[in-house]
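Hello Y.,

Per our agreement to keep a running log of every chain we model this quarter, I'm adding this entry. I've kept the format consistent with earlier entries: sequence first, then predicted structure.
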Amino acid sequence: MASVSMNFKTDSESKKQFDEVAQELGMSSSTLLNIFVKRVAKEKAIPFRVEVYPEKNDDQVKVPRAVLEELATYYVNRKNNGE
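Predicted structure for the entry above:
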């Protein structure tokens, strides 16, 4: 299968921590990202819980309410269509 590039931006501290975790797991950052991409593609879902938190905490993922509503609508429609 041909390889393609995906580019995205993140802050330097998150990248540093991600690289450290990948190394601790004995793999490259690219390998770890590929695992995530393949799992999302296969399961058609985010492989972890996404929540909106009332207070800011740098360790929590912030997701705009509009994105959560779009995801909820998608899954409700999928369920209603028997998928």
